[in-house]
Amino acid sequence: MAYLRSYGAAETVTGSCHVLYIDKGPTIMVDCGMYQGSVEKRNFKPFGFNPKKIDILLITHAHLDHVGRIPLLVKEGFRGKILTLRSTMDLAEVVLLDSAHLMEEEFRTRFRKALRIGKEKKVNKPLYTVDDVEAVFDMPIEFVEYGKTVDLGKGVKATFRNAGHILGAATIEVSFKERGRTKRVVFSGDLGNRNDIVMQDPQNVPEADTLFLESTYGDRNHKGIKESEIEFKQVVTETLLERGSVLIPSFAIERTQEILCILKKMYDDGQLPECKIFLDSPMAIRATHLYDLYHEELSKCCNDFLKRDGSIFEFPYLHYTLKPEESKKINSEDSCIIIAGSGMCTGGRILHHFKHRLWSEKNALLFVGYQANGTLGRRIVEGAKKIKVYREEIAVRAHVHTINGFSAHADQNGLIEWMEGFERLGKVCLIHGEYDKQKIFKKAIAKRMGKKAHIVAPREKIYI
Ligand code: ZN
C-alpha cells in the first residue's frame, strides 16, 4: 500500500520534504526545502533517507524552505528527474544562488575569526556552494504547465495547478492505480490569498483521497488587506509631503512586487506625491523581471498594466539600482522611497540606508513583512532607540510603522474555503505549520467542516 513520510515541515513550518512511496511505482519526493530560523541546525543532519533512491522530485514553489536543500540532495546522490514550472526553476536559481553566496560568505567570516583563536576545525562548512547549485541545473528537468497532466511512468500521473502565493507556486495532485482503483494524493504547497493584487486566486482541486495541507496561518485570520493598503498609502503620502523619505525593508519575492503594484496604482490614481522610488536590491530586481516574463501566471491587474504600459511594474517614478555605484548615489537623494533587502534587516543594502536616514525624524521606516525573533528588524519594531550598523551606533529617530496585513499565505478562512472547493475530500493531513497553531487549526476544521484532520509527525508513515 502506498504511503508517505515527511522528512521536514512536520510540526514545523520550514524544511518541506515529503516522500511518497508507491508499490511498484517511482519514489516521488515533493519539495526539498531548507530549515530556517530556530531549527536551522537540522540542515546539517542526514536527510533520513537515501537520496539515490528518489526517482522524481516535484517542486511546489521556489521559496527557500521548499527548494533550499535541493543542491544538497544532488550532492548526496540524487540522480532522478526534476519536474516543476519553468518560472519556479528560474526563480529557484535566483533564490539558491543567493543562499549559496550568503553561506559561503558567512563561512569565510566565521573561519577567519575561529582561526585567530585556533578553533577553525569547529566551523561548519557551508551546506553547499555556488558550484553545487549549478549542478542542480545540469540535472534532467521537465517543465510542466498549470492544468496539464504529466505522466511520471508506471501509471503514475501528476497535475500542477496555480496556488497563488508566489510566481510559479503550485498545488500538486499525484494519481496512481492501486488494486484497480485510482488513488489521488494532493499536496497544497503554500496557498496564497484570494483577490491578491499580483497573484491569481488559488485554483480548486476536484478530488483527493489524502490531502497534505499547509497550515502556516491555520490558527488565525489576517487583518484586512484593504485596511493595510490604506495604512501603507497614508504613511507614504504623509512622509513624502513632509519632504521625508520612506524606507521599506522587503522580501525580494512577492512582497516587493506587491508593494510596487500598490505604488503604481497610487501613481495612476494621482495619490502619489512626485518622488523617486528606488528598488535597491539585485535579488528583488531579478525576481521582478521574472514576474514580468511569466506574466500569464499572474493576476488580471498585472496583465492590464502590462498591456497598457508594456511592463507590469515600471512607471516614471521607479528606478532599478542594480550596481553598487547606483545604490550609493541614492544617498544624495531627498524625499524618496527606498525598497531594499533584507526583509528582516539582517543584512543587505537596507543597512546602508539605515545609516543615512534612520537618525532623522522626518523619515519613515515601514515594515511590510514578518520580523522574526532575534533579527534587527524585530528589535526596531520592539522599540530599540539605537542600533548598530557596521559597528557604528545609529539613533532610531525615524517614525517606525508596522503593517501586518500583507501576507502571501492564506489564513484560516482562506484555507478552509479552499478545502471546501473539493468535490470529494478524504483524509486531511496537516503539514508545514507550528504544532500549537496546527492544534488550533485542527479544531477549526472539526467545527466548520465536521472533519477530523491529522497532524503529521516527523517521519510518520501515512498510508494513502
Ligand atoms: Zn512559500
Descriptive overview:
There is one protein chain. The chain has 464 residues and is an alpha/beta fold. The chain folds into two domains: 3-220 and 408-463, Ribonuclease Z/Hydroxyacylglutathione hydrolase-like (Metallo-beta-lactamase, Chain A, 4-Layer Sandwich), CATH 3.60.15.10; 225-406, 3-Layer(aba) Sandwich (Rossmann fold). The chain is built from 13 helices and 22 strands. Helix 3 runs antiparallel to helix 7 (282-293). It is globular, with a radius of gyration of 23 Å. The protein starts with a strand and ends with a strand. 45% of the residues are buried. The structure holds zinc ion (ZN).
* Name of the CATH homologous superfamily of the largest domain: Ribonuclease Z/Hydroxyacylglutathione hydrolase-like
Global mean pLDDT: 96
CATH architecture label name of the largest domain: 4-Layer Sandwich
Tally of individual helices: 13
The level of helicity is: 25-40%
- Domain count: the total is 2
N→C terminal distance:
8 Å
Ligands and ions found: zinc ion
Question: What structural category arises from helix and sheet content?
Answer: alpha/beta
CATH class placement of the largest domain: Alpha Beta
Overall 3D geometry? Answer: globular
Query: What's the number of extended β-strand segments?
Result: 22
Strand order of the largest sheet: 6-5-4-3-2-1-22
CATH fold type of the largest domain: Metallo-beta-lactamase, Chain A
Unreliable sequence segments: none
Taking all Cα atoms into account, the compactness measure Rg is 23 Å
| Largest sheet, strands/sense/barrel | 7 strands, mixed
Which band does the percent of strand residues land in? Answer: 15-25%
